[in-house]
UniProtKB/TrEMBL annotation:
It is an enzyme of class 1 (oxidoreductase). It comes from the Bacteria. Keywords: Oxidoreductase. Gene3D superfamilies: NAD(P)-binding Rossmann-like Domain. Belongs to the short-chain dehydrogenases/reductases (SDR) family. GO terms for molecular function: oxidoreductase activity. It comes from Streptodolium elevatio. This is SDR family oxidoreductase. SMART domains: PKS_KR (SM00822). Coiled coil: none annotated. Residues 4-172 form the Ketoreductase domain. Its EC number is 1.1.-.-.
Length: 265
């Protein structure tokens, strides 16, 4: 393959860093985003860093302008949030959707005209298997990732005639240290406290035992390289088996399966 220009959001750690490094290794020109490039203490060799705050529309537009024409966009950056639905603050919900949905969608809108003019491009939305297998106390995060997948799935047909492929990669449990960065909202006197902590303990354990960011990056590159990308790629958490069971089991049974995996009865 001839070298391409790729923009990878959230490239300072986790999946984004793994994807950026993999693209550099094969000779692509890689632009990676982070909120403040000046704060990166261990930059990836070969990655050019751009500032991006997905919750700030002006920052999104400035990043797109700085990036210029790109052949590949990997919308990876996002926030992991948890808490009982009843207790999620409105401003936290708004920030999450700006970061996880509206920012990536706006960035995609800004880069699509160039791809369309060149009649080619690949856009990968990094979602979560929780969008396909919802989990209690992760409602805001589940909804944001489901929304991102919805944009990708519906827009696939719009851009396909121009040689542009849009796909979603849904990782399951990943060992990237995200447990320590998750934003949490739980009232001091919450009636959900005990069950919430049960879920959170299981979630953190599953993530500690999860697949590596490099494993997810390999699937992202598979989606980028496919002549006809599939609508959805899933990786980790026994994805082939659980998606097969999801097709066979009643929806309620599949939801109970997810709950039990996280200590909820």
């Amino acid at each position: 393959m001839s070298p391409r220009t790729a923009l990878v959001t959230g490239a300072s750690s986790g999946i984004g860093a793994a994807v950026a490094a993999a693209l550099v290794r094969r000779g692509d020109h890689v632009l990676g985003t982070t909120r403040d490039p000046a704060k990166i203490t261990d930059p990836l060799p070969g990655v050019e860093y751009l500032a991006l705050d997905l919750a700030d529309n002006a920052s999104v537009e400035a990043c797109a302008a700085a990036a210029g024409d790109v052949d590949v966009l990997v919308n990876n950056a996002g926030e992991s949030q948890s808490g009982p639905l009843e207790e999620l603050p409105p401003d936290a919900l708004e920030r999450l959707f700006r970061t996880n949905v509206l920012g990536p969608v706006r960035l995609t809108q800004l880069l699509l005209p160039g791809m369309r003019a060149r009649r080619g491009g690949r856009i990968v939305m990094v979602g979560s298997m929780l969008a396909s297998f919802p989990l209690a106390y992760r409602s805001s995060y589940v909804a944001s990732k489901a929304a991102l997948k919805g944009f990708a799935s519906a827009a696939r047909r719009e851009v396909a005639p121009y040689g542009i492929g849009i796909t979603t990669v849904e990782p399951g449990s990943i060992n990237t240290g995200i447990s320590a960065r998750r934003t949490q909202y739980l009232a001091d006197d919450s009636p959900y406290r005990d069950e919430y902590h049960t879920m959170l303990t299981a979630l953190n354990t599953n993530e500690a035992d999860g697949i590596s960011a490099d494993d997810v990056a390999a699937v992202v590159l598979k989606a980028i390289d496919a002549a006809r990308p599939k609508p959805l790629y899933a990786v980790g958490s026994n994805a082939p088996l659980v998606f097969a069971l999801r097709r066979l089991l009643p929806r309620g049974a599949a939801e109970r399966m997810v709950s039990r995996r996280h200590g909820l009865r």
